Amino acid sequence: MNRLYVSLLLGLMIMLQASASEIKLENFQADTSVVAVERGVDTFMNACHGCHSLKYVHYRDLASFGIDKDRIAAWRGDSTLDSAMSSLLSDEAALLSFGRVPPDLSMMIRAREGGASYLYSYLTGYYLTPDGKTSNHFFPLTKMPDALEISTATDPVKRSAILGQAHDIVSFLSWASDPHEAERKSLGYYVIVYLIVLTVLLYNVKLQVWSRLKD
Amino acid sequence: MANRIISWIDHRFPLTSFIKHELTDYPTPRNLGYWWNFGFLAGFVLMLQVLTGLFLAMHYKPDASIAFDSIQHIMRDVNYGWLLRFMHSTGASAFFLVIYIHMARTLYYGSYRAPRELMWWTGQGLLLLLMATAFMGYLLPWGQMSFWGATVITNLFRATPFIGDQVVVWLRGDYSVGDDTLTRFFALHYLFPFLIIGAVVVHLVALHSVKSSNPSGIDLADKDNIPLHPYYTSKDFFGLGVFLIAYFIVVFYFPHSVLEPANNVPANPLITPDHIVPEWYFLPFYAILRSVPNMVGGVVAMALSVMIFAFMPFLDRSRIPGGGRYRPVYRILFFIFMLDIFVLGYVGFVPPTDETIAIGQAATIYYFGSFLLLPLISKAEDKWLFKRGLPPKILALIASEEKEKSKRRQR
To answer: Which end of chain A is less packed: N or C, by CB atoms within 10 Å?
Structure first.
């Protein structure tokens, strides 16, 4: 009887899982090592920062993460180390050229269903329609131009270079949306190992105390 | 020296006798299973939420223009702010999970039966307070789901007869959810936990008057009771360890699973999210709300779906103790009811289509039907079980309960 309930519940959970993802996203694993993030910032500064801000990320955060000071100095130009990575495009100018203000990207990975996988699929999802217009498989209504120019790249070497760039940008944005992730996961390891040891001890205390009871 | 200090205190305050009466001599049935751990866990999670919330409140700014930024400040700049915030957001889900299991145990074993009706009703009050606290807390990050969730739910109060519109404005402090709503929800979100603590004290006073229920469903003879401390304290702490492992796995490795992506976008009154979903712990009730085509009817059905649990002591007409343990029909009804709640939760989660609306309506009818038909079903089951002949063990339980009852009446 019990097995029946369990299998019913499992069936329900599988149903929930299946309905959660309707569009097939590229499965993306972020590489949040300093090297990958540093490459990501570089690509981001060239391809995205013209329009998109990162208002919750400061240049000093890059430094404390371990990115080379000279490179940070080159990226930030006249801004101080303490300033946020805001873009130079004003809201008015953005409205004029795109019809809307490009969203801030600090939380973008966390602000979309599918997270990093969605963003990677979106960035690499541009294609040319038969009548020569650019569209996107994952967000057909997007106002953003094909910044990485993947829709016109036909050379396989160039395409894989663009995929690499997209990978770096999304890795950087993954770090930017959750900068304490590495610390969180390493601290969690110690906390949980400690709790397992403690719980085993508590179980033995419980057994010992209860062994005093006679039937 | 220590003895002298204690006797000095005991002269002025009932310290030793309190510990004796409520802990070391407090009689607890010896046959409690692990399902009886969840009351203690609920108290622990309450303390966890109060403490993490206190430290979050030191850095949070309840102002619509900077609330979202202040959460990011906590997550990025405050020392271990991310830990406090993830513990608090995961703690909210953990609280509901623990409370729902606590309630399911009460329903399964029929622990709401006399003389524990007041335990059940104070618990029902606690559930309402918890729901209100969670709902107001969810507005504070000031994300899209915060804003639109609060808009939808406060809007439901339009169903109040005659003064509906005024009530909505009164709740929000404005014609739409805005800065005034945020500041008052923050104030109330800080107040309500203390109301909960007060209600928990009442819940515990009632508990220590009627004592714990147990799987047999009747009050055990004195020889089958053991002191709370050290037997159940050791068992509760072991259970707490298991709980903390599960809780911290979520906090450290899956903290985003309890946070809605849309809530990482700042609140924007001009853009409605694709579909507004409440947190998982409200989904079944939300599904019931949506299953009734008429708004007032939906609100009434939703309110009733939460409050109807309070009627259980009247609806269950069976004389057999132990709930699902000794009553096969009740046991099957219990498990189908649990399944029904999962179905409702699923319906509340997905965007409505003709199919899911139909499933939701069927599940809603079943939900209320299982309460409303319970008097008939439990009576019939009672008759059938007595006619078929109960095992002597259960007859003995009923007889000894009758004896206990008449003893109490004589007193």
So the answer is: C
The count of structural domains within chain B is 2
Q: DSSP for B181-246?
A: HHHHHHHHHHHHHHHHHHHHHHHHHHHHHH----TTSSPPPGGGEEEIIIIIHHHHHHHHHHHHHH
Instruction: Please give the Cα distance from A193 to A86 (Å, whole number).
Output: 41
Q: What's B382's domain CATH number?
A: 1.10.287.980
- The reply to whether B162 and B246 lie within a common domain is yes
Neighbours of A186 (CB within 10 A): 10
Taking CB atoms and an 8 Å cutoff, what residues of chain A touch B262? 111
Domains in chain A: boundaries: 27-178, 180-215
Provide, as residue numbers in chain A, all residues whose Cβ is less than 8 Å from the Cβ of B226.
Answer: 213
Q: For B222-280, write each residue's pLDDT tens digit.
A: 888 999 999 999 999 999 999 999 999 999 999 999 999 999 999 999 999 988 899 99
| CATH class of the A27-178 domain in this structure | mainly alpha
- A106/B256 touch (CB, cutoff 8 Å), yes or no: no
Which of B:303-362 have CB within 8 Å of A? 335, 339, 342-343, 346, 349-350
Q: Examine the domain organization and report whether B171 and B250 are in the same domain.
A: yes
pTM: 0.93
Residues B312 and B379 both lie in one domain = yes
